[in-house]
Amino acid sequence: MAAATNTSEVIATGRRKTAVARVRLRPGTGTITVNGRELEAYFPAIKDRMLVAGALEQVGKQSDVNVSITVDGGGPTGQAGACRLGIARALKAFDAELAEPLRHNGLLTRDGRMKERKKYGLRGARRGTQFSKR
Q1: pTM, entire model
Q2: Residue partners of 5: CB distance under 8 A and separation at least 6
Q3: Which of 4, 17, 21, 116 could bridge 71 with an S-S bond, Cβ 3.0-4.6 Å?
Q4: What does the pLDDT look like over 55-109, one tens digit per residue?
């Protein structure tokens, strides 16, 4: 999942729903860029920004590393979850001692929930047609 291209940069992948995030982690000052934009500009919702930066805050590395993320697919919530998993995996590859706190906080577990497909004869995944007596 995570690959070290050289001694100072780590690349990892995170997925959530249909979103895929490719994360590059480097030693730095704590900037986070998503698709070439600042975190606040890309994720205007506070809950999404907290989700993305949550892995860094849990281990206290928010001011020690620069994070560059390329994310595509899905919506804002799925993309934020994919970024979070990618950052957690990159941190684990960056410093092996961080694996235990990340695992303990559930940040290294992929959320496998996906949208259930629509079935034939139904209006949605489970919703049937409305019954009409007359």
Answers
A1: 0.88
A2: 11
A3: 21
A4: 999 999 889 999 999 999 999 999 999 999 999 999 999 999 999 999 999 999 9
